[in-house]
Amino acid sequence: MNLEESLLARCHFPPRTRAVDLAVSGGPDSLGLLLLARAAGLVVHVHHVDHHARASSTQEATSVQGLCAQLGVPFSVHDVTVEPGANFEARARAARRAALPVGVLTGHTMDDLAETVLLNMMRGAGLDGLSPMVGDPSKPLIDVRRNDLHYYVAGSPYQPLYDETNESADFRRNRVRHELLPVLCDVAGRDVVPLLARQAALVHEERAWLDVLGGPDLARGLEDVDCRELREWPSARLRRWLRAQLSHDDADGVHPPSSEEIERALGVVRGDVVATELAGKKRLSRSAQRLTLE
Fold first, then answer.
1. Global pTM?
2. Which of 34, 55, 105, 229 is the most exposed place for a label (fewest CB within 10 A)?
């Protein structure tokens, strides 16, 4: 089995001849995604987002367009503007997601999953944050290691682009990648990336089981349950229900309430306070033992 066959065996692509959209920045990860998707027999349409955040960004879009012309695949560029400043990574990610087609495939690898688990741990995430990307059909390379993918791309006739900001210590993910993960591997005496990926997969299974158990609860809205009943629920059950009820969607995905918001919501359920303010200018209140979100 050659390297391409070995990588394809680890990919989770749709069946051959399926039409798919690919997010391709031109870097080695997304270029590897493009080459493997074509090798898997998929009918691909490449999408490139130009953030105009660097002087070279428009040139990069032109390079990806030229690559697609060489490969004979359709290409679309999406222009977005992300102003410099705090939370640039998160705002750029939100802009990308808003610009790209729903369900677009991305080149996230097992190493990206491990980094995301650690980033989420540092902000105190729950089960969802400890099992990111798992089971997501838009992440077909999640069982592929980054080094293997880069080696595959290096052996191809095509030259990837390199984003110099991927080395900048200004971005937390880069510090996790270049500083924290090597230290963890040294302390553990082994490569911890597969361990973190396996942990994420196990947590995802637990989440799926809890979703089945909590299905009847989740079918009941905020105004459907008497707070006197809610106060009899086990804490974990109540927190999970509130977390689902108070989550909101936007272009950047599903956002559950923070742990502080859950604590304040619990105060409303218990009767400690009549109402509390939540993110997004929302207000959770209690009247006649029923909850309302305004």
1. 0.89
2. 55
Is residue 42 within 8 A of residue 33, CB to CB? The reply is no
Instruction: Give the integer Cα–Cα distance in Å for 47 and 100.
Output: 7
CA pair distance 57, 51, nearest whole angstrom: 7
Note the helical H segments in 40-165.
57-71, 88-99, 110-122, 146-154
Phi, psi of 45 (to 5 degrees): -130, 120
- Contact between residue 48 and residue 76 where contact means Cβ atoms under 8 Å apart: yes
pLDDT tens per residue, range 162-183: 888 888 888 899 999 999 999 9
| 8 Å CB contact between 153 and 67 | no
Helices then strands, each counted (H, E), the chain: 13, 8
Determine the pLDDT at residue 90: 73
List the domains of the chain with CATH numbers: 3-188 (3.40.50.620), 220-293 (1.20.59)
Name the amino acid, one letter, at 177: R
Angle at 6 between CA 114 and CA 11, to 5 degrees: 50
pLDDT score recorded for residue 252: 58
Calculate mean pLDDT across residues 255-269. Answer: 93
**In whole angstroms, what separates CA 44 from the centre of its chain?**
22
Nearest to 49 by CA among 28, 70, 25, 32: 25
Q: What's the rounded Cα separation, in Å, for the pair 63 and 161?
A: 8
Mean pLDDT of 235-260: 84
Q: What is the mean pLDDT of the chain?
A: 92
The end-to-end CA distance of the chain, in Å, is 58
pLDDT at 251: 53
Report the relative pairing of strands 290-293 and 282-287 from DSSP bridges.
Answer: antiparallel
What are the tokens at 51?
A: 């953030």
Residue 240 has pLDDT above 60, yes or no: yes
**Given this model, what pLDDT does residue 181 score?**
98
